[in-house]
Amino acid sequence: MILESIFSSELPITNPVIKFLLILLIILLAPILLNRIKIPPLLGLIIAGAFVGPNGFDLIERDSGIILSGTAGLLYIMFLAGLEIDLQDFKKNRNKSLVFGMYTFMIPMTLGIISGLYLLNLSLISSVLLASMFASHTLIAYPLISKLGIGKNRAVNITVGGTLITDTLALLILAIIIGSTKGEVNTAFWFKLILSISAFALIIIFGFPRLGRWFFKKYSDNSSQYIFVLVLVFLGAALAELAGIEAIIGAFLVGLSINSLIPHTSPLMNRVEFVGNSIFIPFFLIGVGMLVDFRVFLESWETIWVAFVMTTIAISAKWLAAFATQKTYKFTIDERRIIFGLSNAQAAATLAAVIIGYNTFLGFDDLGEPTRLLSGSILNGTIIMILITCTIASLEAQKGAKNIALAETVIDDVNEEKETPERILIPVRNQETSDELINLSILLQSPKRKSSMYALSIINPDLQDSAAEMKAQKTLNKASETASATDHFLIELLRYDTNVEQGITGVIHENKITDLVLGLHEKQGMDDSFLGNLTEGLLSKSNTTTFIYKSHQPFDTHKRHLILVPPNAEKELGFPFWLVKVWNIARNTGARIIFYVAPETREYLADILKNYPIRVDFRAFPDWEELSNLNIHLKPDDNLIMVLSRKGTISYHTKLEQVPSLINTWLQNNSFILIYPNQPKFAGMDGMEMIHGSLVGPIEGLDYTSKLITRLFRRK
């Protein structure tokens, strides 16, 4: 019976094993085969869905399982768009997003109403609904652009923001029209709609981040965290529908709300993208393809005419909106291609509108036939429009994204010739601290620089411990697993040395390490001997930027990073190297950075960071005598970063010797990072020499530092 069920020739396929196998084969082979003839992978999945669907060879029925998986994929696309967006760029470009959102809403609405009234002979209410279908769009090409690594491009950012605006307006028009056909558009309707949408937005924007931070602090299990994220996505979608708007708006807002809790380099982000791009999103694309029915071209000339008008208006309106945005903000042609490619595809909201319109009856005609808000010809024309717009969107987005990615690669290759590789060393002693140290090191990395991470475990050969090597290797293996979860490769180093400091120093010199990341166990305190030995043993013998990290909670759950920068720190040569690392933390996590600096340092930092925006505030550096009241600045979920210096350097102060006691007093319930800037020794550099850790000579120190910072930041 089982074999008979499996190999049954009855179509469509009903056996769940064979059905799922066929879908997996489509996901695997369609992009590979069609990519050979330059067809984008996502378009290949749509075409494959058309062939195996009920309107093709009828191999697979578009049943509830396909619809469920496809809905999950659509929500996933919108969620990823909100999750991957750069919040600082989003805020910076919010006015541009608003302008594009109005362009891509008003132009299709205008052309849609005119074409509906005069070309398709529809009523005014049907024409408005048809126009709202042209105004909405689906970010179907977003996964393609994200894979090419330009998800943070300004054109992408603006288009994603504009999508939220135009889809919301289009779906509101749908709700209003359907309400008007039922005679429900009155004062109570508007009051209920505004109240429900406001409540929905407040819950997601303010409630979800608090809930997410609490969960991530309490539960570190990988599976639990991922399932929790899925729960938030579908809960947000359900709340959106409860508020009277489409679920895709809720999924997008969920992505925005927990954006800062899931850094782009984190293992959780890697899992979210992997599962979405491998399973959920392909299911959605195949489901869209199953709606395509090529036979509608043979049914009647009316269907062909309607499909032609709808497709032409939809493509023209979105191109005009992209063109207007390009001219308004002087974007490049490739950026216009990205805007057009992302905004041209009609799928999710369009399908929702046409199906609702088709199922809405207005009455009966003279022959007693029911009249619909949108006719069957409009429904069939919509399916053809979806196929064509998705095809053009995929091709245009791919072309623009590849050109931009190629241009950035050329610039990177030129810059890499001038840059020394970034090498980060993480000495690991136990598995309790290795995960947090690896995650911190990944956040410190510069995304576009050649970076390598080294994990080091040192064994004292004089100790007669047969299990020491096994334990050390196990710790290194665990560190490698943590790094691989984020698609990073970790070089494992196992060294025998009777002196830990000499062992670390030797590895630093042998591998040309640029950054050293050290960790403290949560229950381990700081003392003078630790900092003293560290300063004398490591910092004085090696040229690295050194980070000492003590974790009180998962790094991703910090709301703010408070950075104490001593006066004159900007005059030291190590200044730009730690500053770029702090900037990387801000960019990779989206958390707020608060600098406590002297007025001169503030002016200098503000001038630099205005060109490289992060969520940053400046506050006055406390008087050295006030450092004992350090706790007045700290709140729960804050991480303190203290920039320290050694004796003899220009930013050194005797109060820095009190750091161990201050930490033990005030930082029991907060994470902290101590940064020791590197102190490079330059000899024979055109008359420049180091005096007390600062650069003096024929060239001004700050000018040199400013040029160095600019060069480092260009690598971002």
Quick summary of this structure?
This protein is α/β, with parallel strands linked by helices. 59% of the residues lie in helices and 10% in strands.
Name the descriptors:
14 strands, alpha/beta, 716 residues, 10% strand, ten-stranded mixed beta sheet, two-stranded antiparallel sheet
Structural description of this entry:
The protein is 59% helix and 10% strand. The chain has 716 residues and is an alpha/beta fold. The strands form three sheets. It has a ten-stranded mixed sheet with strand order 5-4-3-6-7-12-11-8-9-10, sandwiched between helices. It has a two-stranded antiparallel sheet with strand order 1-2. A two-stranded antiparallel sheet has the order 13-14. The longest helix has 41 residues, at 376-416. The termini are far apart.
